[in-house]
TrEMBL record:
<feature type="domain" description="Solute-binding protein family 3/N-terminal">
    <location>
        <begin position="25"/>
        <end position="251"/>
    </location>
</feature>
<protein>
    <submittedName>
        <fullName>ABC-type transporter, periplasmic subunit family 3</fullName>
    </submittedName>
</protein>
<dbReference type="InterPro" id="IPR001638">
    <property type="entry name" value="Solute-binding_3/MltF_N"/>
</dbReference>
<dbReference type="InterPro" id="IPR018313">
    <property type="entry name" value="SBP_3_CS"/>
</dbReference>
<dbReference type="Pfam" id="PF00497">
    <property type="entry name" value="SBP_bac_3"/>
</dbReference>
<dbReference type="GO" id="GO:0030313">
    <property type="term" value="C:cell envelope"/>
</dbReference>
<feature type="signal peptide">
    <location>
        <begin position="1"/>
        <end position="22"/>
    </location>
</feature>
<keyword id="KW-0732">Signal</keyword>
<comment type="similarity">
    <text>Belongs to the bacterial solute-binding protein 3 family.</text>
</comment>
């Protein structure tokens, strides 16, 4: 019976791999609450740095991107059961995630950070945050970091389904600080949302890897090859540099 079940799982995995490569579309899961990387415009259409990169990658490998919006904590479970073929949503390449998904070649690099009112003079350390409340997005590596490295020291970690909800409670004072990608916080919150009263402090830890990539189903080598070929192509012809410049000006998110 065990052998039969194992055979069925292997066949199901093979069918999922072949369906994505054979289809004209690549179904990509995304949480569109993370500007400027991915967000919804007033007309409901998706936009952002990773949306443009994903569409360019699909074009290079003669596929159509079918973007599937969903909550951040639902992205990897949906990938694993075959509802989508890939996840492109500011996913850091963490050791925890590598146990359940594969990753494409690196797409960009950026550190994590802590946002807090400059007037509070908080630092992103357990000593400074003791007795405070820190907000994070459910399923993010910042949530893992806060629960493992901060909660044992008397810091309450409040998780939210979307980054918008984190920022809403940061602004109304229900939480003292938030933790997220540093570039997203700087561009999407401080600059575009006009909140210069907040400080954006860099965080470095082995639980907060700086490299991001596209998550793929474990063992799906065919679509991994397809996606990586697309990534190589957008670097080779300058498409990546053009898209990066459109969203971030002179800021370089790829070179280390």
């Amino acid at each position: 019976m065990k052998k039969l079940a194992s055979t069925c799982l292997a066949l199901a995995s093979l069918m999922l791999q072949n369906s994505a490569v054979a289809s004209d579309t690549i179904r990509i899961g995304v949480d569109p609450t993370y500007p400027p990387f991915e967000y919804k415009q007033a007309d409901g259409s998706l936009a952002g740095f990773e949306i443009d990169l994903g569409n360019a990658i699909c074009e290079k490998v003669s596929k159509q991107c079918e973007w599937v919006p969903m909550s951040f904590d639902g992205l990897i479970p949906s990938l694993r059961v075959g509802k989508i073929d890939a996840v492109f949503s500011s996913l850091g390449i963490s050791e925890k995630r590598k146990k359940v998904v594969d990753f494409s070649d690196r797409t960009w690099t950026g550190f994590s950070s802590m946002l807090s009112l400059s007037s509070k003079n908080l630092l992103p350390t357990a000593e400074s945050l003791k007795g405070k409340v820190v907000g994070v997005q459910q399923g993010s590596m910042q949530e893992d970091y806060a629960k493992i490295k901060l909660a044992p020291f008397g810091i309450r970690v409040q998780s939210y389904q979307t980054q918008d909800q984190v920022y809403a409670d940061l602004l109304n004072g229900r939480i003292d600080a938030s933790m997220q990608d540093m570039t997203q916080a700087q561009v999407g919150f401080i600059e575009d949302a006009n909140h210069p009263e907040f400080s954006n402090q860099k965080m470095v830890d082995k639980l907060l890897p700086a490299d991001s990539a596209i998550a793929l189903r474990k063992g799906d080598s065919k679509i991994a090859t397809l996606i990586n070929n697309g990534i190589k192509a957008i670097h080779a012809d300058g498409t990546f540099a053009t898209i990066q410049r459109q969203h971030f000006g002179d800021l370089d998110l790829y070179s280390k």
